[in-house]
Amino acid sequence: MNEKEILELVKKGDMSVETALHALKTKPFKDIDFAKIDFHRKLRTGTSEVIYGAGKTYKQIIEIIKTMLDNNQNSILITRLDEDSAREIKKIYDIKYYENAKIAIYGEIEKPSGLGKIIVATGGTSDIPVAEEAALTAEFLGNDVLRLYDVGVAGLHRLLAHIDELADASVVIAIAGMEGALASVIGGLVDAPVIAVPTSVGYGAAFGGVAALLSMLNSCASGVSVVNIDNGFGAAYMANMINHMEAK
């Protein structure tokens, strides 16, 4: 039973205030020894808790999924999940695993409910794993997503061929390694917020994405914000919040 259902029961007179208060006090999280599962996160932030798969055993993830399902979280996103763990989890739960993005989804993806379209653009094909983490996260959270891959500054005509789609975007996630110039270029073309994601793609002087990070932080285009290296999830989460502001 979620918080709204509890309050509806109180309104109808089918639950006492004292019982409802106890339920709300005890509901915020459940301690399962190695994790404390937060059930009030959607109420506070608009988005249910997401499982970060890296560093967790598949047995721990299975137990977390069970706890979420037992508490009526029926759609679950798992990020940074390796293929071996996904294979073991599939024996218990019917997850859909996206190998390139290292993302698994249990349950249904929300229907798009945001203001408009989120565009996920990459400088090159090598940036696609991070881009897919962003795109799938944004879709899971209820957004219409358009992917524009391999439209980097080495061939600007490839990006400009999509100028109409870019002009109509509510948010653009610009994902690039090397020198990370894509975010600045897009920032100078659109009136939507641009969320830049540096990737750890590039030769030695790229320093594992640090060069792209610093370039994006120093963008001369206004309206560009930056998340951490390879953080497609974080970019999508922020884009989702922006794309749902009017609904809020």
What does this structure look like?
The protein is an alpha/beta fold and 248 residues long. 38% of the residues lie in helices and 18% in strands. The strands form three sheets. It has a five-stranded parallel sheet with strand order 8-7-9-10-11. The chain has a four-stranded mixed sheet with strand order 3-4-6-5, with helices on both faces. It is globular.
What descriptive keywords fit this protein?
NCAIR mutase (PurE)-related protein, P2CMN_synthase_LarB, globular, PurE_dom, 248 residues, 5-stranded parallel beta sheet, 38% helix, 18% strand
Summarize the structure.
By secondary structure, this protein is an alpha/beta fold.
Draw up the topology in text:
Blueprint: H1 3-12, H2 17-26, E1 29-31, E2 36-38, H3 41-45, E3 51-52, H4 58-70, E4 76-79, H5 83-90, E5 95-98, E6 103-106, E7 117-122, H6 128-140, E8 144-148, H7 156-160, H8 163-167, E9 171-176, H9 182-187, E10 194-198, H10 210-217, E11 224-226, H11 232-243
Helix pairs in contact: 1-2, 4-5, 6-11
What ranges have pLDDT less than 50 throughout 5 or more consecutive residues? Answer: none
* Helix count, DSSP H or I runs of 4 or more residues: 11
What's the gyration radius in Å? 20 Å
Strand content: 15-25%
Mean pLDDT: 90
Largest sheet: 5 strands, parallel
Structural class: alpha/beta
The topology string of helices and strands comes to: HHEEHEHEHEEEHEHHEHEHEH
Dominant shape: globular
Percent of residues in helical segments?
Answer: 25-40%
Query: What's the count of strands?
Result: 11
Terminal Cα span: 23 Å
Strand order of the largest sheet: 8-7-9-10-11
